[in-house]
Amino acid sequence: MSDGAADSLGRTAEELVRLAAGRLRREVWDYLSGGAESEATIAANRAAIERMGFVPRVLRDVSRVEERTVLLGRPLALPVFLAPIGSLALLHPGGAPAAARAAAASGTTAFVSLMAEPGPEAIAREAPGLVLQVYMRGDRAWLRDLVARAEAAGYAAVCLTVDSAVYGRRERDLINRYSSSMAADRAHLGAGGGAQITAHQSGLTWDMVAALRGMTRLPLVLKGIASPADAALAVEAGMDAVYVSNHGGRQLDFTLGALDLLPPVVEAVAGRAEVLVDGGFLRGTDILKALCLGARAVGLGKLQGWALAAGGEAGLRHLLALLAEEIRTAMALLGCARLPDLSPALLRSLPAPFMPGPLSAFRGLREGQGLNAEG
Hints:
The chain is an alpha/beta fold.
């Protein structure tokens, strides 16, 4: 990206968020940025990250820093991926296809939500190596057909989300009288929309997870794991990756922060599967903390949405370039030339978060300080 283009989007991720705040309608900003009920889980995600401080090593050769990794057998240029978001088209006309192209151009991948328009096949044509994220919207035969479609479309893996038995009470949306499912037509889901949670999702059990494993040879990811016991069950069910997530604070209020959930899950998995995580990660240093604690890669949710709203595909490519630069800089200053050099020994718990609050990684971006623009 040219210096002029970079200047138009800003030199920091914070500037991208400010651009997004000015371009999104209030109800859409709240849909993207908000969470369940009191939004304590959003705050917990940030607090968990901010409680961890680095203990850097020195006098190590970091003249060449390598931030590449491998996720589900595929190389990534950086240990970051775009998390699944079903309503990207509400944030920018480019929507999920733009996100897929930005991920591919940046050397990483995107998890494509089943809810995202214009549908799995159309989005898969935009970029290779994507992961299809699935909600249960039908019976076992429906799932088998969907998996076959994912294989035929060239998806690299399938991700089943399991933390959404019912829809979380997102009070910003309730106050705004706003429904993302009503705002997007999702014609690809067929008559009736299919966006609303049904008994198929509420009745999801480990039996269906086992059945899914028998339907495909594609790598499988289970998203929404918080408990070490569930992480162990996921490995026993043949999952290739366990995805630690509290849905960005959008489902259950007052859960632990994602980074707090990560170490016991890593211990339970014990190297038998890859471990992914999302939830409040906004900076390169945030991402490195998760990698120190055993994550293979980190998903971007709200930050992805803000960058897309700020500048479409170019905004997302710019964000990923900024994060790559932040990761390389922090690794060098930590004394780590390669990602395997990262370990829990580089972290210590701080007595309190440095700047408490859901958006405290960015100066001045907390509630009431200019982010609730009407657009």
